[in-house]
Amino acid sequence: xxxxxxxxxxxxxxxxxxxxxSMLEGxxxxxxxxxTIVGSDLMIPLxxxxxxxxxxxxxxxxxxxxxxxxxxxxxxxxxxxxxYTAVWMRCTHQGTQLxxxxxxxxxxxxxxxxxxxxxxxxxxxxxxxxVFPVMVEKHQLKVSLR
Length: 146
Known about the structure:
The chain has a single domain (30-144), classed as 3-layer Sandwich (Rieske Iron-sulfur Protein). The protein contains one helix and 15 strands. It has one helix at 3-27; strands spanning 31-34, 36-38, 41-45, 50-53, 56-59, 62-66, 74-80, 83-88, 99-101, 104-106, 113-115, 120-122, 131-132, 134-137, 140-144.
């Protein structure tokens, strides 16, 4: 291989790698929103799950909801139009805040993993996450914090 071919091949490979990484970052984006607390309910507009893609509307698989009165955020997963699960992002092992990675929540302290319904996949955590009841009401999600 000549030097010119080597440099050209190296540049093309580098460029392809950069494009692949940027595409993967777009697939794994996490949306963090601020929910409103009304009484003992956390209110989240359904529009917060929407992402405009040209003339199409797509939906996020999940959003992370924060509020100053909550000690930990709540991850709300969307399965279907009226099927949502709200899980408290607090590890049941030692109380560390969890991180969301697609359909899984993971503890950065000791590696416990939970699925998108709050069930333990991998320890050391032995208990499932706290799951809050969710209702769809007038274009909003109503997450009961009781």
